[in-house]
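ok trying this again, last paste got cut off
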Amino acid sequence: MDTTTAQKLIEKTFKNKFNLDNYEYFLTELLNTADINREEKTRYISKEYHDYVKKFYELGSYEDEEGESLYLCAVELKNEGSRDRARTMQRNLIAKQLGMGGGNTMQHL
């Protein structure tokens, strides 16, 4: 991808209101071999996250040449006004998920 196209993709993805399709496209361009298979997993979120999370998506996974892997997901917030608090909540949600196996083995969070 040339520099201009890459800059436009970054702007479209991060300088506009969040759009899940744009984010998935960004991930596929950034991580060429990412296995993207979106699944909504909101129903598995425990009560402690219900006040913050509108939607939770497992997007897929990525493994690099050294065998290091990434768990790809997206969290749609109910209230975007409290971003600092939301960052902590999202970090805790994902940490809990990763501790349970992460990836496509979503269990009740």
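PB: full thing came through this time. The chain has a mean pLDDT of 85.
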